[in-house]
Amino acid sequence: MQEQLIQRAITVLENNFQKGGFTIPSKGLYPFQWKWDSGFIALGFAHYNMKRAKKEIETLLDAQWENGFIPHIIFHTDSDTYFPGPDFHQSSLHPQASKKVRSTGMTQPPVFGFILQKLYEIAEDKEDILKFIRTHIDKVYDNHVYFYENRDINDEGLVYIYHNWESGTDNSPMWDDIWETMNPPEYTFERRDTSHVDPAQRPSKREYDHYLYIIDIAKKYLYDDTKIAEHSPFLVQDPLFNAILIKSNSALIQLYKVLGGNEDKLSYLNEQQIKSKKTLNDKLYNDELGAYVHYDLRKNMQIPYISSSSFSPLFSGAPDKEKAERLVNTMMTKFGDEDRYLCASFDPTHERFDPRKYWRGPVWINLNWMLYNGLKNYGYQEIADRVKNDSLQLIEKYGFFEYFDSRKSNPDSENSGYGGDNFSWSAALLIDFLKEKT
Ligand code: DGY
Is 75 within 8 Å of 102 (Cβ atoms)? Predict the structure, then answer.
């Protein structure tokens, strides 16, 4: 049974692999290379084709800008099935953008540190993988330096995101309060996503107006980080983004130790890491909610909503035992009913929860994978196992979808798998779940 599932997952990945040496998240809906997707996809490949895993990472890192920035979408090819494409984003406005390939001018969570470490753990030929890591690790390091030097405007160890698409949790209800502070023009454009997926499962047209408007502002300032920090109506410190940065810092520290030397890089990373962990705990933890939350740098206040991102610091190792216990408690009280799969992307007890709409409620396999690993590291093995088994059940029952309804009995539909089908990271992370050495 497990072997069959793995074979099906491999077929998904193989079908999404492109001649250019990268893997699309899902045909039609996402026809290019996405930054954090690519990391999770490489992890899936690593279990059965290390050469492919290395290629995926190499192709992505090859699109890095001169300032260390790595974009969220790399437009390796032309495709008219996606909007907004390269002509809208115009990455070349930034003087240090890649001259080789077009991209967006925004980024996504920095997963590559911990992905390199996973590859090192999985690889049978350690010498070969260390050779690969030695060649590429500085690019990942440069990306972290880019974040700390350009996006940590208070020099406190937390980096900002200036667009909801940078968070990865694109249309989460926590952005609604920010949309209320904006009044973007009504753009005229042809949506492509809703020709692939039921519009009930995607963001609204008005939300897209906000998304496009923020990009237009960033373009007006030629994607200059300092100017974006001054002018973007969206400026947020995200617990998920920063937890992933912290996790990847730890991974880089461990890998540099294995490689030897690199004392200056190690001391830079160690110094940032202490600051980042401290501020994550001081600034993004909300004691009343028993959860980490987002921080709105425009209003200088926390955005007090609980989402699956709220528990992601478990993955980073930053919470102490007491905070971890509170987090698990909050998660199980609000998200953990027996009639629900773990873990909904937004608080199911909140009025803004929508079980079908993208990041407003559905379960996502990559968040589950991070939560599983975080819970396990803190010793919550039983709950971790539930997260893993729920992920496997959802995929087995409904297929390799992009996201899933968290309700075990779903009155709306027989198929609780939503969004893109044959979705690469659902396949890749299922492989990692099933191949895990316990
Ligand atoms: C989309 O188009 O919805 C993508 O998730 C943006 O990254």
Answer: yes
Say how far apart CA 354 and CA 201 lie, in whole Å. 9
| Pocket probe mutation, ligand 1, options 29, 167, 170, 196, max atoms within 8 Å of Cβ | 170
Quick one: which H or E segment has residue 103? strand 102-103
Q: Give the position, in ligand 1's atom list, of the atom nearest the Cα of 72.
A: 7
Amino acid of residue 301: M
DSSP labels, 42-55: HHHHHTT-HHHHHH
The CB density around residue 165, as the number of other CB atoms within 10 Å, is: 20
Say if ligand 1 is within 6 A of residue 403 CB. no
Q: What is the pLDDT of residue 144?
A: 98
Q: Positive or negative CA dihedral for 99, 102, 107, 113?
A: negative
Q: Rounded distance, CA 160 to CA 179, Å?
A: 17
Q: What is d(CA 404, CA 363) in angstroms, rounded to the nearest whole number?
A: 5
**Contact by Cβ (8 Å): 167, 161:** yes
> Distance from the CA of 93 to the center of ligand 1, in angstroms?
21
E strands, 250-375, are 285-286, 291-292, 294-296, 301-303
Judge whether residue 438 has pLDDT over 80: no
Q: How many CB atoms lie within 10 A of CB 209?
A: 17
Per-residue pLDDT band at 414 (split at 50, 70, 90): confident
Beta carbons of 162 and 235 less than 8 angstroms apart: yes
**Interacting residues of 281 by C-beta distance below 8 A, sequence separation 6+:** 318, 319, 320, 323
Residues known to be catalytic: 170, 402
pTM, full prediction: 0.98
Calculate what percentage of the chain has a pLDDT beyond 70: 100
Query: What is the residue type of 82?
Result: Y
- Of the candidates 42, 23, 37, the residue with the CA atom closest to the CA atom of residue 432: 42
* Dist. CA 301–CA 362, nearest whole Å: 27
Residue 297 near residue 178, CB atoms below 8 Å: no
Q: How far apart are CA 358 and CA 360, in angstroms?
A: 6
Distance CA 217, CA 106 (A): 12
Task: State the amino acid at position 51 in one-letter form.
Answer: K
Q: Which residue, judged by its Cα, is nearest atom 6 of ligand 1?
A: 165
Average of per-residue pLDDT across 390-403: 98
Nearest CA to ligand 1 atom 4: 165
Q: Give tens-digit pLDDT for 121-170.
A: 999 999 999 999 999 999 999 999 999 999 999 999 999 999 999 999 99
